[in-house]
Amino acid sequence: MTTTTEATRLAGAVGVAHTRVEGLDKVTGAARYAAEHHFTELAHGWMVLSTVARGRITAIDSAPVEAMPGVLAVLHHENAPHLAEASGFFGPDPTVQVLQNDRVPHVGWPVALVVAETPEQAREAAESLVVHYEQEPHDTVFRAGHPDTYTPGDDEDDSVEISKGDMEAELAASAVVVDEWYTTPEEHHNAMEPHGAIARWEDGRLEVIDTTQGAFATAQDLAALLSLDPSSVRVVSEHVGGGFGSKGLVRPHSVLAAMAATVVHRPVRVVMTRRQVFSLVGHRPATAQRMRLGAHADGRLRALDHQASSYTSRVMEYVESSAAISRVLYGADAHHTVNRVVPLDVPTPRWMRAPGEAPGSFAVESAMDELAERCGVDPVALRIRNEPAVGPVSGLPFSSRSTVACFEEGARRFGWAERDPRPAVRREGRWLLGTGVAAATYTAGVVPSTASVTAEAGGDFTVRITAADIGTGARTALVQIAADALEVPVDRIRMRIADSDFGQAMLAGGSTGTRSWAHAIVAAVAELRAVLVPGMEIPADGITVRGNSLDAVRGLAKLERHSFGAQFAEAAVDIATGEVRVRRMLGMFAAGRVVNPLTARSQLVGGMVWGLSMALHEEAHRDAASGGLVGGDLAGYHIAANADVPLIEADWVDEVDPHDPTGIKGLGEIGIVGAAAAVANAVWHATGVRHRQLPIRPDRVL
Ligand code: MOS
After folding, report:
1. What ipTM score was computed for the predicted complex, to two decimals?
2. Domains of the chain from N-terminus onward
3. Are the CB atoms for 119 and 46 separated by under 8 Å?
4. For ligand 1, what atom is nearest to the CA of residue 355?
5. What sequence ranges are listed for the domain Aldehyde oxidase/xanthine dehydrogenase a/b hammerhead (predicted)?
């Protein structure tokens, strides 16, 4: 190793396209997801979920099921191991307090686990289990102004209400006012790999192979729930087939697998069906958002009021922070944002790709488009005119903010200048054509993490960090980061991830994974440099040091840290059927240094596809009478298919975050942010009709 020089940095691996280091394993089938591992004596658990929306269990007829072929155990609230009401890694999580009492809080709540020799026997037995309920009246219907709505008062800063200035006075004095409601429906994520885990006891330790975005947090939570010493629980998640937030925390399948392994003294596998995923892993709640914008005649904002509400469950409070995005995007003399919730008898909503920003951007970026229309100002120019110099609410400087560069470069590539601002004037046969634009932003966070690095006798380096690669290419990005930190070629790095025994690290979430892990790897490499002496003999088992980014992260100045972007879309609307076809999308982003352009582009394009899907297709229907989902599966829940997805281009402007050792900001979530608004704004431009309710279904267009 030599001292880092600018030349070696520029010649390094970060910033260069690199195929996935585990790509060959994935395409040859050598890479295994959690539930694909095999153990002798492996038993299979099948969950039984409640069919009523509210009430209590009066009896479970387990005896006939226990006598069925292959059945090893039927766990339910009367015989299941006790779970501590533990404060987990992210606080107490009542959604995993399963089989602890007779209460049923929603349709799809786990009421039993049947364990059998084969999955088929477990399923047959689970479907034969008769559970008796005493039903109570339920309420599963979300609407704006529901009487049980309240403003949450916890200390999470994006859930509280923030006010600045005299809202009513500024609105009254405004030359132009937009005052509209925007709604988004209940939406679901359903990863390619359904949630599954295998739990087993091995030499006095609970070993769990799980599909999780955070093996360390999952291990901590399982230990707390089962009243075990944290050192006696190990969770690994080497390959994860998608997460999107749904695998951010310990979920019921892992808890049930651990309970069952304890009871039957065998390894136990529990895998959710697609339909079970729709109840048990969180989802995006429906939102209703009132936007009030007041502006000078030239479009400069005087007033911005973003009042969001969404539902939570009665199990725990989850706040979809839709209004938080308005605290970052635009300043105004009077500024008010609030996220309210209403508890319903429904499964608990949770993190789903860009929680808060995804639905919030639909409201604020649709309203900005309406403001542009009413002021007669170009939508791109309106946004540039309203660029804040500092955090609109915090007053803190931005670590960097390249929104204008994104809009200008995006507009140039998209051909925005040729756009006729008038709506409903471009026609091509039976299609009306329009273009739309929206801003994007997402928090660029960093969380203290640890890593170890070993200088091997043969000259290679092994890095160990409890990172997770949920399909994003994180493992490959970390190889590139480690190679540059160590100033060696990428093929000298062995990257070991996703094992809680490697120590505390941020989970793959909140667009903060790669950046947080990079901090820890850079810290570990610095420790190694302090230990290694040029020419020294490396012992056979190598030299291992640990690094911790805690001090580096704590020492970071307080700034507004976000990635930014500009989304452009062109839509065609069939005048006969109301069908909307998106013809092209372009996203220009500013997300700090991009570690691996290949996988970064995939991540951004994936988010944009999701935004298209959110704009046109996605909505879950909950039946008021039963409280259950209608079509809670991949047949009934519509998502964009390949035929719906046009040419999508994602790119970025040059930006290096000066406050990050690798220059990274993060780009996990920002691809979806603003994308639905850009499509909706394009539909308005095509037709002259505003769609403030998602999705923009053909029947709503006509
Ligand atoms: Mo993201 S919702 O933190 O996976």
Report:
1. 0.97
2. 6-31+447-554 (3.30.365.10), 375-445+558-702 (3.30.365.10)
3. yes
4. 2
5. 28-137
